[in-house]
Backbone:
């Protein structure tokens, strides 16, 4: 049973001001209803004026997604009643969107895949309701219009995705692309909302509304695919309906049929002239996008495909890597950023932005100059990340290595002051049984001795060095 | 000089005003110290603005409409807000939630509408200048019924910022006064580009009226003298047109077939837009708080049922219907096609003539209650709505009387030729009109 998924993605355009007025979009930490004016409050007599920057941002997206921009597009009113909707309608685009017929290439389940983009259009966000006294039975609700009029774009795909995982990959690629374009900040509250259409080949399509996280999309789709498969297995029919994703429980629930019958009575917004911006497209210079950067990372830094893909999949991570790679061995840096650092960050749920790149570069340099073993370098990284998480900053890696005495123990130039050799001698002296076994030809006894030496040197010696020194001593060369 | 105030205590026997400002401030400028009445659907900072609707009772705008700012900049004194049909929906001012305005020429008759309060205030001599708004004739109809001059400017020539929307694509704010020079003066103050109105045109208005109409070709569409037009009104208007001919204008009779569906196109369009514009009055932000014990969707429906008058509710319902899926193509889309035809008709006619002339209203002012059935009220707009559908300028100037009641001569001009309709009206006014 083939899974068929199409997505509708609402992204907040990261402009300084709202879509139809001059109010600031940066309302974080501010009181409700402080970033408002007659226009975004929809006061009687106010009129919208389009934010040129928002149009330009939307066009950047359209161009990056290889869309066609028609000569003329039209804003329309979507009419419905809701307390967060100050005008009683939302200004959006309907039958004549800003851009149509594009695509985005992603890493699909079966290799490189082209996902077709149906359309890209602009719209304003409504305000936000705050329910007091619990979600299920709120005592009362308050409305905050700080969000009202925030510019959004809606990107609609064709039903080209074939699994929840592919949908997730598409979203990740889209997010990276939008961030590279400098039009989107994925860390802002409410910056992304997804509606997903999902069906099993041959049966009805179900729409899942209002998924608000990247992980949520995969979770919601996985749940829904399983639900539909089970229903079919039991001989039930899939009903065409709208379902809500309940993020906390990881399930989708049927929306009341009433909400489906909503008739939005779209008609062209009479207060805004048609948008004629096809001529702007040629003037837009796109920055390097994820695919191009991935190629460059492989060519310029010698990154593997997998590392290059991981590193370029996130704008901040890619920028971070390039800073680290500038002063260290780029291949070593790639491993340390893409594998080690990313793993540790995910474990702590920390963003890469929290880590100073020069600090991390210093750690990679220590590994590179063999001043610390890989294992101890990871140990140091964990300590530094915990420090950052706790107090926002950390000590220098070199200082940390010295403080904990983790500097690597090498084989000394002269016999007398070689700490590794003396540790090995101690181990040999303390474990005559193992030595005997080894000499009797039981090679695994050597591993035991290596472990003993490692313990004595607190991990500061490289296992290969320890091996070599032990073999030399045991072979009776002294 | 700043800080000067006017004393304004009119004898408002006709209920032209919903509220007055007893001591309005005024400044220096072209309108220094001149009292100006403002229709109650134009936002005035600090002065309650209700559109003559209960649903907006108590609403005090925090900002001035652009036209009001312009008036203040030229020294005018804003002396009060005038009565109107609720949200502009009507042709008699009987649809005001706060009681009708009487026609100063005959108190048993309506002043016309929807800018009936502004027209009555001027006709009664309470103010020399007033602002009205015209969606389908709401300036010209009361101007005709009250015997004053009223101009509906070219769509976009006067900013709509601050005008409480009824039908955005049709309506314009315009000047009303006792004679053409005053209308011209007020127009020169309020016209001009406004970045806050995206449909605004960059076309300032600086004009000295000329009464020379020699060589002006005046078209007279047969449809403007068709069925429903009182023959006595038609005869007075023909006399006025003949006077312009004697002054050197050339009269050309013509036809305007699109008039057959202009009224339907107009009503479908304005009701559709109104149904959307008036959605914001849901009891959350305007008027007294709704009953919070009820679920929201019940509370807001109740508020709208009680807060809107019958005509407003009728238009919201009809407009909602016209936009619904399955009917959009049949009504709204058709209306836009018909509107396009009206535009084309005007374009064609204006290659042959410079202006079009005819009666403003098919009859003289109605008696109170005479137009009780909505359809006959709608029909009386037939001669004024074409100009709104096409966005062209149109003026009504008094041109005589029938049984002692004023009749208006309507002059319509090419898009952006507001100056020319002013000139033709001025030529008539100066040429020995009544």
Residues:
């Amino acid at each position: 049973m083939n899974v068929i998924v199409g997505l509708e993605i609402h992204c907040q355009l990261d402009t300084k001001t709202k879509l139809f007025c001059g109010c600031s979009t940066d309302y974080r930490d501010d009181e409700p209803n402080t970033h408002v004016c007659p226009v975004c409050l929809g006061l009687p007599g106010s009129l919208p004026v389009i934010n040129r920057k928002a149009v330009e941002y939307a066009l950047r997206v359209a161009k990056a997604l290889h869309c066609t921009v028609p000569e003329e597009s039209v804003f329309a009113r979507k009419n419905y009643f809701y307390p967060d909707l100050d005008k009683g309608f939302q200004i959006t685009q309907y039958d004549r969107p800003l851009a149509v017929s594009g695509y985005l290439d992603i890493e699909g389940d079966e290799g490189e895949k082209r996902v077709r983009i149906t359309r890209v259009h602009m719209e304003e966000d409504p305000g936000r309701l705050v329910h007091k006294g619990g979600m299920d039975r709120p005592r009362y609700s308050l409305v905050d219009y700080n969000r009202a009029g925030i510019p959004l774009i809606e990107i609609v795909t064709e039903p080209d995705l074939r699994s929840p995982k592919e949908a997730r990959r598409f979203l990740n690629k889209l997010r990276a692309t939008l961030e590279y374009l400098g039009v989107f900040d994925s860390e802002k509250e409410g910056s992304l909302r997804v509606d997903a259409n999902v069906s099993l080949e041959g049966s009805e399509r179900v729409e899942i509304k209002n998924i608000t996280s990247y992980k949520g999309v995969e979770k919601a789709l996985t749940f829904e695919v399983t639900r539909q498969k089970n229903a079919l297995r039991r001989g039930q029919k899939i009903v065409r309906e709208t379902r809500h994703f309940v993020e906390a429980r990881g399930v989708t629930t049927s929306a009341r049929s009433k909400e489906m019958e909503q008739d939005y009575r779209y008609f062209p917004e009479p207060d805004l002239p048609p948008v004629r911006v096809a001529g702007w497209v040629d003037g837009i210079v796109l920055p390097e996008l994820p695919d191009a950067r991935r190629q460059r990372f492989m060519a310029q830094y010698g990154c593997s495909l997998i590392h290059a893909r991981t590193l370029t999949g996130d704008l901040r991570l890619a920028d971070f890597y390039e800073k680290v790679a500038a002063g260290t061995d780029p291949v070593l840096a790639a491993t340390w950023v893409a594998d080690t650092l990313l793993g540790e960050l995910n474990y702590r749920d920390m963003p890469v932005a929290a880590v100073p790149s020069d600090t991390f570069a210093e750690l990679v340099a220590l590994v590179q100059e063999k001043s610390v073993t890989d294992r101890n370098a990871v140990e140091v990284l964990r300590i530094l990340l915990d420090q950052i998480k706790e107090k926002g900053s950390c000590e220098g890696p070199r200082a940390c290595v010295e403080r904990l005495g983790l500097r690597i123990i090498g084989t000394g130039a002269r016999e007398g002051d070689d700490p590794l050799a003396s540790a090995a001698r101690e181990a040999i002296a303390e474990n005559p049984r193992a030595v005997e076994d080894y000499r009797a030809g039981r090679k695994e006894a050597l591993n035991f001795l290596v472990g003993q030496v490692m313990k004595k040197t607190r991990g500061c010696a490289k296992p290969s060095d320890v091996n070599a020194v032990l073999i030399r001593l045991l072979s009776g060369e002294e | 000089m700043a800080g000067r105030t006017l004393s304004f205590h009119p004898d408002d026997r006709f209920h032209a005003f919903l509220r007055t400002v007893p001591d309005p401030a005024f400044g220096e400028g072209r309108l220094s110290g001149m009292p100006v009445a403002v229709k109650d659907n134009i936002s005035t900072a600090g002065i309650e603005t209700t559109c003559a609707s209960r649903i907006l009772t108590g609403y005090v705008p925090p900002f001035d409409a652009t036209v009001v700012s312009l008036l203040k900049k030229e020294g005018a004194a804003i002396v009060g807000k005038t009565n109107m049909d609720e949200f502009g929906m009507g042709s008699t001012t009987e649809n005001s939630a706060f009681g009708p305005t009487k026609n100063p020429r005959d108190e048993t008759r309506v002043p016309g509408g929807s800018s009936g309060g502004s027209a009555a205030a001027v006709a009664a001599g309470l103010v020399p200048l007033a602002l009205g708004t015209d969606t389908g004739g709401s300036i010209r109809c009361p101007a005709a019924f009250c015997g004053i001059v009223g101009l509906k400017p070219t769509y976009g020539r006067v900013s709509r910022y601050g005008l409480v929307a009824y039908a955005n694509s049709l309506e314009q704010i315009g000047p009303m006064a006792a004679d053409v020079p005053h209308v011209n003066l007020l127009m020169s103050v309020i016209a001009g580009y406004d970045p806050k109105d995206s449909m605004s045109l960059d076309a300032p208005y600086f004009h000295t009226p000329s009464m020379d109409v020699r060589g002006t070709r005046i078209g007279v569409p047969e449809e403007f003298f068709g069925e429903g037009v009182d023959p006595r009104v038609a005869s007075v208007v023909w006399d006025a047109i003949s006077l312009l001919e004697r002054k050197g204008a050339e009269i050309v009779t013509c036809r305007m077939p699109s008039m057959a569906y202009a009224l339907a196109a107009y009503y479908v369009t304005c009701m559709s837009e109104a149904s959307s514009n008036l959605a914001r009055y849901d009891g959350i932000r305007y008027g007294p708080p709704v009953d919070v014990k009820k679920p929201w969707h019940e509370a807001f429906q109740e508020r709208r049922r009680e807060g809107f008058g019958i005509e407003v509710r009728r238009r919201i319902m009809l407009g909602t219907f016209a936009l619904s899926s399955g009917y959009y193509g049949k009504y709204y889309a058709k209306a836009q096609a018909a509107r396009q035809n009206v535009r084309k008709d005007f374009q064609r006619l204006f290659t042959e003539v410079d202006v079009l002339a005819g009666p403003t209203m098919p009859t003289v002012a109605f008696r109170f209650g005479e137009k009780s059935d909505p359809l006959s009220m709608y029909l009386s707009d037939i001669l004024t709505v074409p100009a709104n559908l096409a966005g062209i300028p149109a003026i009504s100037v008094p041109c005589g009387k029938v049984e002692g009641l004023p009749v208006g001569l309507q002059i319509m001009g090419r898009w952006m030729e507001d100056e020319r309709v002013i000139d033709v009206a001025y030529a008539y006014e100066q040429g020995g009109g009544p």
